[in-house]
Amino acid sequence: MSPRRAITLVGIGDDGCVSLTSRAVSAVTKAGVLVGGERHLEFFPQFHGERIVLKGGLSTVLDRVAELAEEQNVCVLASGDPMFFGIGGLVIKRLGAEHVEILPQPSSVQWAFARAGLKWDDAAFLSLHGRSAEGFLTRLKRHAKVAILTDENTSPPVLARRMTEHGETAWIAWVCENLGGPDERVRRFTVEDLAACQDIGPLNVLLLVRSDPSWRVPCTIPFLHEDAFAKRMPKKGLITKREVRLLSLAAMGIRPDSVIWDIGAGSGSVSVEAALLAPEGRVYAIEVDQEGVEMCRENLRAHAVDNVRVIAGRAPEVLADLEPPDAVFVGGSKGSIEEIIDIVFDRLQPGGHLVVNAITLENAGETYQVLRRRGLVPEVTLLQVSRAEPLAHYLRYEALNPIQIFAVSKPIQTGVAS
After folding, report:
1. Do 156 and 204 meet the contact criterion of CB atoms below 8 Å apart?
2. Share of the chain above pLDDT 90, in %
3. What is the pLDDT of residue 5?
4. Contacts of 403 (CB under 8 A, 6+ apart)
5. What average pLDDT does this structure show over 139-166?
6. What pLDDT is stored for residue 56 in this prediction?
7. Separation CA 91–CA 104 (nearest Å)
8. Are the beta carbons of 48 and 42 closer than 8 angstroms?
9. How many CB atoms lie within 10 A of CB 53?
10. Confidence tier at 220 by pLDDT (50, 70, 90)
11. Helices (H), 86-178
12. What is the three-class DSSP state of 63?
């Protein structure tokens, strides 16, 4: 016999009881306790049992729900589909799936695509409700159609202004407000017009669709040429060359949600590509030279990458307050390589990767000795790249500076059985 499901999680729209199924209405009728937001509870003035308002302290409310459910039926109200960016996951985690019956409604995102007349099986979904907009632009880069749940701090005009500031305007926007309610409104905008709009309601879904139908997803590995970045001179610029960048980034083992330190970021080329490889993560670009700091920021704007925080200061002094990294790249040390490696290995997540680029023999020797003193044997690659350059009607090879790439991982400590 299946266990009694004393808790029913009912999805509800802005039209209240009107669109509820008979099964959902029955769940409310049979309940001795009704739980939900103030707006949801107002849809049931005829309910005479105990009412519990969901606001703040959700853990405390769920503890109370678990206690009440031992003796009576409890109905929890939630917006749309509770299992789609809703409280459903928390309810199941706390109370157990075997005790909860879920009766979903169409989600706000489903309603938004329906109202805009757009298919949504090829869309990506992003919730900024209660979250920072940091990384929003970077995550957009790999999608042609996106549905975004917003709040007052990440409202559609705020996001549109962020897009405009970074030149990310080749989109059509739909703002769908109060979906399913009597004051429902669906409007289409250009990004520039949306940035200037001042009458968007707080209950909305933002849809973004690329305006160019021929747009294609960018390459998985950026492999950007140095000419794609503003950089310091002399000669071809003080910047990590793309072949070196490719091997270094591969050795860093970057995942979509990695936290990355780029020490001695310079023009920010490694930061930009690392950020593109970790759209749900964060990159800290540490640079002491003020000209490099400004160029790094310029390149972040030019490539519409917004999950990079530029830290103006000298390593290792500015590293102490940064969140622990999963991967670290050291492209410049200003003579402090030993101190940098020491603090990196103290803060690096177990299993995380450190990659150091060394140009001089002295820097390479010091890097090797510091790692060996920690009992680590690095993987070392001497990379010598020559590129074909025009010479009259011919091509000749021109050699780039050789680079030594040191790569090492922090050991994962395993527990010892007693």
Report:
1. yes
2. 89
3. 75
4. 241, 244, 357, 358, 359, 382, 383
5. 97
6. 75
7. 14
8. no
9. 13
10. very high
11. 88-95, 108-116, 136-140, 156-165
12. helix
Architecture per CATH, 7-106: 3-Layer(aba) Sandwich (3.40)
Q: Whole-prediction pTM value?
A: 0.91
Which residues have CB under 8 Å from 75's CB, separation 6+?
Answer: 7, 8, 10, 27, 28, 30, 31, 33, 34, 35
Architecture of the domain made up of 226-409: 3-Layer(aba) Sandwich (3.40)
Q: Which residue has the tokens 């979906």?
A: 179
| pLDDT at 77 exceeding the cut of 80 | yes
Summarize pLDDT for 333-359 with one digit per residue, the tens. Answer: 998 999 999 999 999 999 999 999 999
Query: pLDDT-derived band of residue 58, with 50, 70 and 90 as boundaries?
Result: confident
Q: Which residue has the tokens 């020559």?
A: 386
Instruction: Give the Cα separation of 66 and 105 in Å (integer).
Output: 24
Residue 50's DSSP bridge partners are 33
Q: Which residue type, as a one-letter code, is found at position 129?
A: H
Q: In sequence order, what DSSP letters do the residues of 291-358 get, joined into one string? A: HHHHHHHHHHHHTT--SEEEEES-TTGGGTTSPPPSEEEES--TT-HHHHHHHHHHHSPTT-EEEEEE
Number of separate helices (H) and strands (E) present in the chain: 13, 19
Tokens of 312: 């103006």
Domain boundary assignment for the chain: 7-106, 109-210, 226-409
Classify domain 109-210 at the CATH topology level.
3.30.950
Given a cut of 50, is residue 120 above it in pLDDT? yes
